[in-house]
Amino acid sequence: KNQVEQSPQSLIILEGKNCTLQCNYTVSPFSNLRWYKQDTGRGPVSLTIMTFSENTKSNGRYTATLDADTKQSSLHITASQLSDSASYICVVRSGGYQKVTFGTGTKLQVIP
Amino acid sequence: KAGVTQTPRYLIKTRGQQVTLSCSPISGHRSVSWYQQTPGQGLQFLFEYFSETQRNKGNFPGRFSGRQFSNSRSEMNVSTLELGDSALYLCASTKDGGPGDEQFFGPGTRLTVL
Fold it and tell me: Cβ–Cβ of B108/A95 closer than 8 Å?
Protein backbone atom coordinates (compact mmCIF):
# COMPACT_ATOMS: atom_id res chain seq x y z
CA LYS A 1 0.00 0.00 0.00
CA ASN A 2 1.33 3.43 -0.97
CA GLN A 3 2.05 5.54 2.09
CA VAL A 4 3.59 8.92 2.88
CA GLU A 5 4.63 9.66 6.44
CA GLN A 6 5.68 13.07 7.67
CA SER A 7 7.47 14.08 10.81
CA PRO A 8 7.21 15.81 13.11
CA GLN A 9 3.43 16.24 13.29
CA SER A 10 3.89 19.71 14.69
CA LEU A 11 6.74 22.05 15.39
CA ILE A 12 7.22 25.37 17.17
CA ILE A 13 10.31 27.44 16.43
CA LEU A 14 11.53 30.94 17.13
CA GLU A 15 11.53 33.49 14.35
CA GLY A 16 14.86 33.53 12.56
CA LYS A 17 15.70 29.92 13.34
CA ASN A 18 16.04 27.12 10.78
CA CYS A 19 14.05 23.91 10.72
CA THR A 20 13.80 20.69 8.73
CA LEU A 21 10.68 18.70 7.96
CA GLN A 22 10.82 15.05 6.96
CA CYS A 23 8.87 12.95 4.50
CA ASN A 24 9.25 9.17 4.08
CA TYR A 25 7.34 7.35 1.38
CA THR A 26 6.70 3.84 0.18
CA VAL A 27 5.01 4.86 -3.06
CA SER A 28 5.88 2.80 -6.09
CA PRO A 29 6.50 3.40 -8.90
CA PHE A 30 7.81 6.87 -8.12
CA SER A 31 7.09 9.75 -10.50
CA ASN A 32 7.68 12.92 -8.48
CA LEU A 33 7.37 14.46 -5.04
CA ARG A 34 5.96 17.88 -4.22
CA TRP A 35 6.02 19.96 -1.09
CA TYR A 36 3.00 22.15 -0.50
CA LYS A 37 2.44 24.96 1.97
CA GLN A 38 -1.09 25.38 3.29
CA ASP A 39 -1.98 28.49 5.24
CA THR A 40 -4.92 28.20 7.62
CA GLY A 41 -8.21 28.45 5.76
CA ARG A 42 -6.58 28.31 2.34
CA GLY A 43 -5.77 25.70 -0.27
CA PRO A 44 -2.26 24.23 -0.56
CA VAL A 45 0.31 26.01 -2.71
CA SER A 46 3.17 24.17 -4.38
CA LEU A 47 6.65 25.06 -3.10
CA THR A 48 8.78 22.68 -5.10
CA ILE A 49 8.69 19.51 -7.17
CA MET A 50 11.38 16.83 -7.10
CA THR A 51 11.85 14.19 -9.76
CA PHE A 52 13.85 10.98 -9.50
CA SER A 53 17.09 12.49 -10.78
CA GLU A 54 17.04 15.59 -8.57
CA ASN A 55 18.75 15.67 -5.18
CA THR A 56 18.25 19.27 -4.13
CA LYS A 57 16.04 22.13 -5.22
CA SER A 58 15.63 25.56 -3.69
CA ASN A 59 12.82 28.08 -3.75
CA GLY A 60 13.94 31.14 -1.82
CA ARG A 61 14.37 30.18 1.83
CA TYR A 62 12.94 26.71 1.15
CA THR A 63 15.28 23.88 0.14
CA ALA A 64 13.98 20.41 -0.62
CA THR A 65 16.13 17.30 -0.84
CA LEU A 66 15.32 13.88 -2.20
CA ASP A 67 17.03 10.54 -1.61
CA ALA A 68 15.32 8.16 -4.00
CA ASP A 69 17.29 5.18 -2.67
CA THR A 70 16.04 5.53 0.90
CA LYS A 71 12.73 7.08 -0.25
CA GLN A 72 13.14 10.10 1.94
CA SER A 73 12.68 13.80 1.34
CA SER A 74 13.22 16.81 3.55
CA LEU A 75 12.18 20.44 3.43
CA HIS A 76 14.59 22.85 5.08
CA ILE A 77 13.42 26.35 5.97
CA THR A 78 16.12 28.92 6.55
CA ALA A 79 15.77 32.03 8.71
CA SER A 80 12.11 31.37 9.47
CA GLN A 81 9.57 34.15 9.37
CA LEU A 82 6.18 34.49 11.04
CA SER A 83 4.58 34.02 7.63
CA ASP A 84 6.08 30.53 7.45
CA SER A 85 3.50 29.42 10.02
CA ALA A 86 1.44 26.90 8.07
CA SER A 87 1.01 23.22 7.38
CA TYR A 88 3.52 21.63 5.02
CA ILE A 89 2.30 18.66 3.03
CA CYS A 90 4.41 16.14 1.15
CA VAL A 91 2.70 14.61 -1.90
CA VAL A 92 4.10 11.72 -3.92
CA ARG A 93 2.90 10.85 -7.40
CA SER A 94 3.29 7.28 -8.60
CA GLY A 95 2.76 7.94 -12.25
CA GLY A 96 -0.27 8.23 -14.45
CA TYR A 97 -3.16 10.53 -13.87
CA GLN A 98 -3.95 11.41 -10.29
CA LYS A 99 -2.06 8.53 -8.72
CA VAL A 100 -1.15 10.71 -5.76
CA THR A 101 -0.59 9.94 -2.11
CA PHE A 102 -0.67 12.75 0.45
CA GLY A 103 1.14 12.92 3.74
CA THR A 104 -0.83 14.18 6.74
CA GLY A 105 1.40 17.22 7.00
CA THR A 106 3.58 19.00 9.53
CA LYS A 107 2.08 21.98 11.28
CA LEU A 108 4.73 24.64 11.77
CA GLN A 109 4.31 27.57 14.10
CA VAL A 110 6.88 30.35 14.09
CA ILE A 111 6.78 32.53 17.18
CA PRO A 112 8.40 35.94 17.78
CA LYS B 1 -4.96 35.18 -14.33
CA ALA B 2 -7.73 34.27 -11.92
CA GLY B 3 -7.14 31.35 -9.58
CA VAL B 4 -9.37 28.43 -8.74
CA THR B 5 -12.59 29.56 -7.13
CA GLN B 6 -14.94 27.54 -4.96
CA THR B 7 -18.42 28.33 -3.77
CA PRO B 8 -19.75 28.50 -1.22
CA ARG B 9 -16.85 29.01 1.20
CA TYR B 10 -18.83 27.84 4.22
CA LEU B 11 -21.84 25.58 4.55
CA ILE B 12 -23.80 24.18 7.47
CA LYS B 13 -26.14 21.25 6.90
CA THR B 14 -27.91 18.65 9.00
CA ARG B 15 -27.64 14.89 8.78
CA GLY B 16 -29.59 13.38 5.93
CA GLN B 17 -29.52 16.48 3.75
CA GLN B 18 -27.64 16.76 0.50
CA VAL B 19 -25.19 19.40 -0.64
CA THR B 20 -23.67 20.62 -3.90
CA LEU B 21 -20.30 22.34 -4.05
CA SER B 22 -18.97 24.22 -7.05
CA CYS B 23 -15.48 24.70 -8.46
CA SER B 24 -14.31 26.95 -11.29
CA PRO B 25 -10.83 26.01 -12.54
CA ILE B 26 -8.17 28.29 -13.90
CA SER B 27 -8.94 29.30 -17.46
CA GLY B 28 -7.53 26.74 -19.88
CA HIS B 29 -7.31 23.96 -17.30
CA ARG B 30 -9.27 20.89 -18.26
CA SER B 31 -8.64 18.62 -15.27
CA VAL B 32 -10.43 19.17 -11.97
CA SER B 33 -9.85 17.04 -8.89
CA TRP B 34 -11.72 17.00 -5.61
CA TYR B 35 -10.29 16.26 -2.18
CA GLN B 36 -11.63 15.90 1.33
CA GLN B 37 -9.41 17.23 4.10
CA THR B 38 -9.93 16.37 7.76
CA PRO B 39 -7.54 16.90 10.68
CA GLY B 40 -7.07 13.20 11.29
CA GLN B 41 -6.91 11.88 7.72
CA GLY B 42 -5.24 14.69 5.82
CA LEU B 43 -6.10 15.08 2.15
CA GLN B 44 -8.08 12.24 0.62
CA PHE B 45 -8.65 12.01 -3.13
CA LEU B 46 -12.32 11.90 -4.14
CA PHE B 47 -12.31 11.96 -7.95
CA GLU B 48 -10.91 13.67 -11.02
CA TYR B 49 -12.74 14.95 -14.06
CA PHE B 50 -11.26 15.63 -17.45
CA SER B 51 -13.24 16.83 -20.45
CA GLU B 52 -16.56 16.13 -18.72
CA THR B 53 -15.59 12.53 -17.90
CA GLN B 54 -14.63 11.04 -14.57
CA ARG B 55 -11.11 9.79 -15.16
CA ASN B 56 -10.17 8.60 -11.68
CA LYS B 57 -11.98 7.84 -8.47
CA GLY B 58 -10.88 7.45 -4.87
CA ASN B 59 -12.30 5.15 -2.21
CA PHE B 60 -15.39 7.05 -1.18
CA PRO B 61 -18.96 5.73 -1.02
CA GLY B 62 -21.44 6.36 -3.82
CA ARG B 63 -23.00 9.20 -1.81
CA PHE B 64 -20.16 11.31 -3.19
CA SER B 65 -20.57 12.16 -6.83
CA GLY B 66 -19.50 14.84 -9.23
CA ARG B 67 -19.70 16.14 -12.73
CA GLN B 68 -17.92 18.49 -15.05
CA PHE B 69 -19.42 20.86 -17.55
CA SER B 70 -18.22 21.78 -21.00
CA ASN B 71 -16.57 24.95 -19.64
CA SER B 72 -14.56 22.73 -17.21
CA ARG B 73 -16.46 23.97 -14.18
CA SER B 74 -17.16 21.13 -11.81
CA GLU B 75 -19.67 20.33 -9.12
CA MET B 76 -19.50 17.83 -6.31
CA ASN B 77 -22.60 16.43 -4.63
CA VAL B 78 -22.90 14.62 -1.33
CA SER B 79 -26.21 12.97 -0.56
CA THR B 80 -27.56 11.74 2.76
CA LEU B 81 -25.00 13.69 4.76
CA GLU B 82 -23.37 12.08 7.78
CA LEU B 83 -21.59 13.73 10.70
CA GLY B 84 -18.31 12.34 9.40
CA ASP B 85 -18.67 14.28 6.18
CA SER B 86 -17.74 17.46 8.03
CA ALA B 87 -14.51 18.54 6.37
CA LEU B 88 -12.78 21.03 4.14
CA TYR B 89 -13.46 20.14 0.51
CA LEU B 90 -10.79 21.30 -1.88
CA CYS B 91 -10.76 21.29 -5.61
CA ALA B 92 -7.64 21.58 -7.72
CA SER B 93 -7.17 22.21 -11.41
CA THR B 94 -4.37 21.34 -13.81
CA LYS B 95 -3.95 21.74 -17.54
CA ASP B 96 -4.27 18.04 -18.33
CA GLY B 97 -3.64 16.22 -15.05
CA GLY B 98 -0.38 14.69 -16.22
CA PRO B 99 2.37 13.68 -13.77
CA GLY B 100 4.37 16.89 -14.20
CA ASP B 101 1.41 19.24 -14.07
CA GLU B 102 1.17 21.44 -11.03
CA GLN B 103 -2.14 21.33 -9.21
CA PHE B 104 -3.58 24.70 -8.28
CA PHE B 105 -5.91 24.48 -5.33
CA GLY B 106 -8.93 26.59 -4.54
CA PRO B 107 -9.57 27.99 -1.05
CA GLY B 108 -11.95 25.17 -0.20
CA THR B 109 -15.49 24.84 1.06
CA ARG B 110 -15.81 24.24 4.79
CA LEU B 111 -18.77 21.87 5.30
CA THR B 112 -20.19 21.35 8.78
CA VAL B 113 -22.78 18.63 9.29
CA LEU B 114 -24.85 18.90 12.46
Answer: no
